[in-house]
TrEMBL record:
NCBIfam families per record: transpos_IS5_3 (NF033580)
PANTHER family noted in UniProt: BLR1914 PROTEIN, PHP DOMAIN PROTEIN
Transmembrane annotation, as ranges: none
Name of the protein in its database record: Transposase
Species this protein is from: Ancylobacter amanitiformis
InterPro entries per the UniProt record, alphabetical: Transposase_11
Signal peptide positions on this chain: none
Domain Transposase IS4-like: 4-116
Amino acid sequence: MLADALGRPVRFIITAGQVGDVTAAPALVEGFACGAVLADKAYDSNAFRRRVTEIGAAAVIPSNRTRKILIPHDATTYKLRNRIERCFNRLKHFRRFATRYDRRTVHFTGFIHLAAVMIWLR
């Protein structure tokens, strides 16, 4: 999921449960204008960092501990990453989202869009 600076959902990509989030991340930021992309250590890959640089944003991603050479990040800006966590928390207030009642992806995606609109209207 991609959220804006206020922690409101902007884009979603539904992936299979066993797929890592970093595989869908380049498609999420595609064509999105921003000054910085804040993400956790799971998104620390050279390809994603390159993609973020290509769109003209700064990658504020802490290095994974398996990196031989750690890449520094802005710790003050990284503290703002809690906004995406708050966005997920707001979505989890909808029981249908939190427990994934819908078996079909198209139905689940439709409900996510409905819940996102309700969050935007708050």
